[in-house]
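INTERNAL AUDIT FORM
Audit reference: QA-55
Scope: verify that the stored structure record matches its stored sequence.
Auditor: D.O.
Record contents follow.
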Amino acid sequence: MAKDPHHVDVHVGKRVRLRRMMMGLSQERLGEKLGLTFQQIQKYEKGANRIGASRLYDIAQVLEVGVQFFFEDVPEEIDPCSYEEAGSDAAPRLMNFVSSAEGLQLNTAFSRIECEETRKRIVDLVKTLST
């Protein structure tokens, strides 16, 4: 029986994905820079394979961040069945969205809006649409 990945490995993988997407790199391109296949990058990003310390250091160098970036906001250990379905903790869902292509595009575009009042109105609109 396959063991579920440790929640820290999953979190680190999501942060690798987030930063890679922020930089506009494909999994294939990141893999090339690290001497890995895109499949290995996929496994790292899903948390299926743990990232060793030296490999994480190399990834941080390519993605131009400190190693600590990958550990920011690590959640305490949680029961994976309790947060997705029950909605008891919005942080994992939010992290999944923010690190998605849509989430990154939305946040990038939103951050370019200079008018504070316009940003507030957009937030109000989205809140209205989501209820």
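Auditor finding: record pair retrieved intact. The two ends are 41 Å apart (CA to CA).
Action required: none
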